[in-house]
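Following up on my earlier message about alpha-D-glucopyranose. Here are the inputs again, as you asked, copied directly from the submission form:
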Amino acid sequence: MADLNDPTTSWWRNAVVYQVYVRSFADSDGDGVGDLPGITSRLPHLAELGVDALWITPFYTSPQHDHGYDVADYRDVDPLFGSLSDADDLLARAHELGLRVIVDLVPNHTSEEHEWFRAALAAGPGSPERARYLFRDAPEGELPNNWSSVFGGPAWTQVDDGQWYLHLFDSTQPDLDWRNPEVPAMFEDVLRFWLDRGVDGFRVDVAHGLFKEASLRDQEVGEDERPTSGATTEHSMVERDLKDEPMWDQPEVHEVYRSWSKVLDEAGPDRMAVAEAWTQTPESMAAFVRPDELDQAFNFAWLLADWSAEAFAGVITDTLAAVAPVGASPTWVLSNHDVVRHVTRYGGGAQGLARGRAATLAMLALPGSSYLYQGEELGLEQVDVAPEHRQDPSYLRTGEVGRDGCRVPMPWGGSEPPYDFGPAAGQPWIPQLADWAALTVEAQTGDPGSTLEFYRSALRLRREFAWTAGDAVEMLDLGAEVLAFRRGPLTVVVNCGDSAVGLPEGEVLLASGPLEGGLPADTAVWLR
Ligand code: GLC
Ligand code: MG
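Thanks, got it. Here's what our run produced:
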C-alpha cells in the first residue's frame, strides 16, 4: 500500500491550484462576461505563474441567479460561456501545458430551471417528482421550520398549491433530497460524464450540505442569535463556538463520498475531489478526507485566522494534527470568490498588501496544497462595488454588501477598463477600477518588486524546495509576535509584530518585502 503521507504518491497532495472565476477571468466574445475560450487563451499566464492546476467555477447551463451555482443542466455548457467543444479544447490545451483541471460540482441544490424542479412544480404535492426535493406543508401563517437561508431570509419558499420547498441558499436554488436514491444516481452519472471528458478532479460545492436531519426539526438558537443556516463567512473553526446545525454535516453524507471515491478510482489513479466543507472543527473537516472519501478539503481556518502569529501557529498545529491520522494532505487557502480578498482583510493599502504577501509566503512553504484565487497574484483588493452594479443574491435578499467586490474582472493589460479583459470597449459585467493600470499582468511583468513577480518567484522556489515524505513541520519559538517554523530544508519566519526583529541564521532564499534592519513588521522570509 502506498504511504498515505508521501506527497509524491498523487499530484494533488502537494499542488498549487489556481481558482478561475469563469465570469471574471477573460472574455473572448466581447459580451463583457468571461468564458471558456477566454480561459483557454490565458492558460499560458497560469503555466508561467507556475501553478499545477486550475479549478474553474461552474460553467454549466444556468440562469445565473447565483452566477452558475444554480445549475439547470449538469451535462452542458451555458451558451454565455461557450459549448462542450470549448470545454474539450480548454482541457486539451491545459493538459498540453501540464496543467490539471478541476471542475465545480454543485450537488446540494439545482436551479429552479432544472428539468427535475420544473417537473416537481408541475406534478404537485405527493408526487415522485416532488420527492426529489424537500417539499413540506406548514400550518397557515407558519413555515415548516425556523431555518434561514445562508443568503438571508427564510430557507423556505411557498409554491402556488401551498407547499413550501427548502433552499439553504437563494429561492432559485431548491435543495435536493439526498435520501431519494434517484439523486445520488444522477450525480454519479454526472461525475462519469466529466471524467470521461478528461477532467482531473472536482471541487464539491457545499460538501457539508446534501443531507439534513430527517426530521427537519427546528434549529436551536441562543437568545441573541438569529437562526442561521451557517453563513459561510460566519463559520469559525477558530472560535469553536459549536452551533446546533441540523442542516449541515450529517453523518449520512460520508456514504456519498465513499461511493464517489470509487467512481473516481474507476476513472484512474490521478482523479481527485476537494471538498468545500464549512465544518465546525478540524476533526470534522478531516472526516471528509478519510482514505475512502474525498481527497482534500479546503482549510478555511487558515483564511479565518487573524493577522497574528499565535492564530497562524494554532491553525498550522491543529490542521496538521487533524489530517495526519487520516493520511490526507493538508490544504491552505487565503481567498476565494465568497470572501473579502485577504489584502483587504489584513487592513488594505500598503500594510494589507505586505501582510498578504507574507501570509502567502508562509502558506506556500507548508506541506500540502495551496489554493490561490485569481487576482491575488496581482495583489488585488476587495472592490467597493456601487449598489447599482451589485448582483450577489445575498445582497439582493438582504441589502447587505455581498461578494461582488472580490469578483471584479481581471486586469490583464492596457491603461483603462476593460484592461484587456476582452475585446469590447468599456466596462465588463462588474466595473473595474480606474486606477488599476499599474496592477495589470502586463504592468507587473518584469518588475522585480511587483506582487506578480513575487508570486512567480515563490512558486518557482516552492518546486525547488518541494515537500517530500518525512518532512515534518517543527514550530520554532522566536517570540510571541513571530510565526516561525522549519519544514525540511526551509526555515520560515513571519513578523506579525509592529517592529523589526532579527533574522535567524541562514541564507535568505526569498522575502515577501524589503529586508531592512532585520525582518521588518508584516514581512516573511524563507531561509535555508
Ligand atoms: C458555495 C459557493 C458559493 C455559492 C454557494 C451556493 O458556498 O462557493 O459561491 O453561492 O455554495 O451554491
Ligand atoms: Mg464572453
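One observation from looking it over: Residues 226-239 have pLDDT under 50 and may be disordered. Hope that helps, and feel free to reply on this thread.
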